[in-house]
Amino acid sequence: MVSIIIPAYNAERYLREALESALAQTYRDIEVIVVDDGSTDSTPEIVREFAVRDRRIKAIRQANGGLSAARNAALDIASGEWLVFLDSDDLLYPDSVERLLETAENSGCDLVHGAWTRGLDLNNASIHSGEELMVETLTWHELVERILYQTSDLIPTAWGKIYRRDVFSNKRFREGITYEDLDIFYRLGNTDGRIAVTSATVYFYRDNPSSITNTFTSSRLDVLAVTERLEEYIAANHPSLLPAARDRRLSANFNMLCLLAIHDHEGSYADVADRCFALIKSYRRASLFNPRVRLKNKIGILLSYLGRGGLRIVSPLVYGRKAR
Predict the structure, then answer these.
(1) Calpha distance 83→76 (Å, rounded)
(2) Which residue(s) pair with 164 in the sheet?
(3) Which residues contact 295 (CB under 8 A, 6 or more apart)?
(4) Nearest-CA neighbor of 9 among 1, 219, 18?
(5) Rounded Cα gap, residues 269 and 256, in angstroms
(6) Strand pairing category for 135-139 and 194-206
(7) Which residues make up the CATH 3.90.550.10 domain(s) of the chain?
(8) Are 194 and 238 in contact (CB under 8 A)?
(9) Which residues of 20-51 are buried (b: 16+ CB within 10 A; e: fewer)?
(10) What architecture is domain 2-206?
(11) Strand, coil or helix: what is 309?
């Protein structure tokens, strides 16, 4: 059995579509766990409606605790040998679970990354159905390194993947933070094993203007602590990945410094901005001369040598349309 986990908070706008996509899977041995995380809109009614229609749906309602708390609640009751995460404003394609599970079984891997596409509406998303599917197997080290350097299509989201349930046997998402996926991805999987990556498109990410990644709030600053913990973990357990971890932390500090330059007109987070720039100055030289570092980071590093004034000038050009 495969457990599809859907956390939902005030998700009435797109939840029906997400549920329909989960229930329409060509692989039928599934359960769909919907966690209503204290919604105040019609989300509870939608969940009840679907639960009456299809007995494969398990419904949980709890006080609002955030995305991590909702996912953790579902993990605690999941019956499936395999787990798939679906956000309430996104969609699975009809054969997503079948393709992911087939790749897992053929490769013998406990974790499979699939391809994904994005858009405002599924009708505008293209799937290259005629292309030959490719499957690559990576070591844990190779996977984490690629994600940290941000130079491939591999991303640290919980969605777009299938996990053997044992992967989460003693792990849960950190609650009360944003960037919870970035906080956990490097602690998942067997560091001595392999991870499969399939080119099959299995997930549709909706560019929802009201999503966390498309707005700016102080919670976005959580990424600074998340990447600090990431670096500390890598330094203690996998020191050969330390240059990659430090570059990812550098990137996070660049992002937040630029977003604060755009949004913090009152200077409420001046101390945070100061710490970001201090870390950038400390880490920039190593990343500048690291051939694995992406071009975007190197351009930012070169601009940082002009001082914070240079970054303030370019910040609206790079980030102005992405974070309101």
Answers:
(1) 12
(2) 82
(3) none
(4) 18
(5) 10
(6) antiparallel
(7) 2-206
(8) no
(9) ebbbebebeebbbbbbbbbbeeebbebbeebb
(10) Alpha-Beta Complex (3.90)
(11) helix
Tokens of 199: 């080119």
CB 15 within 8 A of CB 96: no
| Cβ-based neighbour number of residue 282 at 10 Å | 12
Q: Give, as one character, the DSSP assignment of residue 227.
A: H
How do strand 111-119 and strand 161-164 relate by DSSP bridges? antiparallel
pLDDT at position 315 is 76
The reported pLDDT for the residue numbered 324 is 32
**In order along the chain (324 residues), what is the average pLDDT of each group of 10 residues?**
98 97 98 98 98 97 98 98 98 97 97 94 60 90 98 96 96 97 94 94 86 73 98 98 98 95 91 97 98 94 88 72 41
Describe the crossing of helices 242-263 and 308-319 by its angle, rounded to 10 degrees: 80
Q: Which pLDDT score, from 0 to 100, does residue 322 have?
A: 46
pLDDT at 211: 58
Q: CB-hemisphere CA count at 13 Å for 282? A: 10
pTM of the model: 0.93
| 174: number of Cβ within 10 Å | 17
Residues 53-73 as b/e (b if ≥16 CB within 10 A, e otherwise) read eeebbbebbeeebbbbbbbbb
